[in-house]
C-alpha cells in the first residue's frame, strides 16, 4: 500500500598407454641408499604424525570447537494466510479479526494451509504513548492486542501486524523509523509472528543518509537482535517496498518476502501487468525468500471465474505468498474452491523444491519481450512429483495452446509423460513429444503435472524432438 492509490495509498574415457621395463645397472652404495631411505622417511613421518596429533589434542582442550549454529530461519515456504487491507482497508476491529480467524477454520482454509491472520494499517492510535510505544486503538481493540493474538493462537493460527520504515504508515499512523528496536519488541510482546513493513513517509536524505536497503536493514537488525537476546523465533519480515530498487536482488538478506510491483487491483489488467513484470525475475524465489506479487484479489471486483483461477494459479505456482483479501463471510463457493485447490497448493508448499515456475515461451510476443496486457503464456518448473506447466490464454477468445515437451528444461528427450490436470483433478493419458490444450477459455489457465512414464515408443520420426544438429552415429545430419 502506498500513496497514489484510492486509499492513500530455480564416465570419462581413459586411454591407457603400453610401455616395457627399462633396466639400469647401479652401484652397491646406491642400492643401500634405496633400502635405507624408506625407513628413514617412515620414521620422520611417524614423528610428524605424533606431534600433530598431540598439539591438535591440546588445541581442542584450550580452544574447543564452537557449538553448531542454531538454524532459526523462518518462512522456508511462502506464507499463506489472510490480510485485512483489500477487503476492509481501515475499517477493522478486534471482532472482525477474530471473526475472520474463525471463518478461516470453519471454511477449511486453515486446513488448506492458510495459517496467518494479518492486520494491516489503521490499528493504532495516531500518536505513541509517553513511553514512546505504539498503542492499539482503544475503540477498535479494547481488549488489547495480546488478548487478540492469544485467541488467534488458541485457534491454531498465527498473527501478523503492520508497520512502516518511515515516520508514518501510509495512512499516517506512527511508523517505525528510529523506533525499530522498540517496535520489534512491542510486536513480539503483543504476540505477533509476522510483520508487514511498508515504504511510506520516507525521511529526508540528510536524516537517513540511506537508501531503501538501509531503511529495511534497520528493522531486520532489530528483529534479529531481539530474537537473539530473547531466545525467541524472529518475526517473519514481509517487505512492502513495491518493487523499488530491485528488491529481488538484495531483499532476501533481510526478510522472507519482498514486493515486486505496485499495488494490485481487482481486475484482469492489474493481474497480467503484475505477472508480466514478475516473469523477468522468477529466479529470485527459493526457500526462505519469495517474490511477493501482492495480496490476492480472488473473490473481489469484476474478475470472472476463469480470471480468478488464472490469478490464483499464477501467484501459487510462482510461489508468491498467498494472502486472501476478500470478505470471507460472503465468499462464494467458487471463491473458496479456487483458494483451496489442494493440487495447486501442493506445488506452492513443496518442501523439496523451492523454486518458481518460469516462462519457456512467451507465445504472442517474441521471447523476453515485456507486454503488460499479454505476458508470457507458457511456463514450467520443477516439483518433487514431476514437472509443472502453466498455460495462460491472455486473449479475449478461446485458444488452442500447443507446446513441445522439451521446450521445458525439466523434460527429458526420448521419454513419455503422464498428464495430470490440476484443476479438473483428472489423469489425461500420456504425452509423447507434444501437448495441446484445446479451447482454453479467454483469460483462462491450464495447470498440468507431467510425470515420467518411461521411454517413448520406438520408431518415432524424426529421431530428435528438437531438429538442431540431430545426427546419426555415422555422421549423417537429420535436420
Structure summarized in a few sentences:
It contains twelve helices and 16 strands. With 479 residues, it is an alpha/beta fold.
Keywords:
single chain; 12 helices; 479 residues; alpha/beta
Say how many strands there are: 16
The main sheet orders its strands as 7-6-5-4-3-2-1-8
Order of helices and strands: HEHHHEHEHEHHEEHEHEHHEEEEEEEE
Instruction: Categorize the overall geometry.
Output: elongated
Helix content: 25-40%
Report on the biggest sheet.
8 strands, parallel
Could you name the ranges where pLDDT drops below 50 across 5 or more consecutive residues? 4-70
Q: What structural class is derived from the secondary structure elements?
A: alpha/beta
- Give the amount of beta strand, in percent: 15-25%
**Please, what is the average pLDDT?**
89
Backbone CA Rg: 30 Å
Distance between the termini: 54 Å
What is the number of helices?
Answer: 12
Could you please describe the fold and organization of this structure?
The chain has 479 residues and is of the alpha/beta class. The strands form 3 sheets. An 8-stranded parallel beta sheet has the order 7-6-5-4-3-2-1-8. Helix 5 links the parallel strand 2 and strand 3. It is elongated and about 85 Å long. The two termini are 54 Å apart.
Topology:
Elements lengths: L27 H35 L17 E4 L1 H4 L5 H13 L2 H4 L3 E3 L26 H10 L3 E7 L15 H11 L3 E5 L6 H4 L3 H19 L5 E4 L17 E3 L8 H11 L11 E3 L12 H13 L4 E3 L8 H7 L2 H7 L9 E4 L16 E6 L2 E7 L6 E6 L10 E7 L4 E7 L1 E7 L4 E11 L24
Parallel strand pairs: 1-2, 1-8, 2-3, 3-4, 4-5, 5-6, 6-7
Antiparallel strand pairs: 9-10, 10-11, 11-16, 12-15, 13-14, 13-16
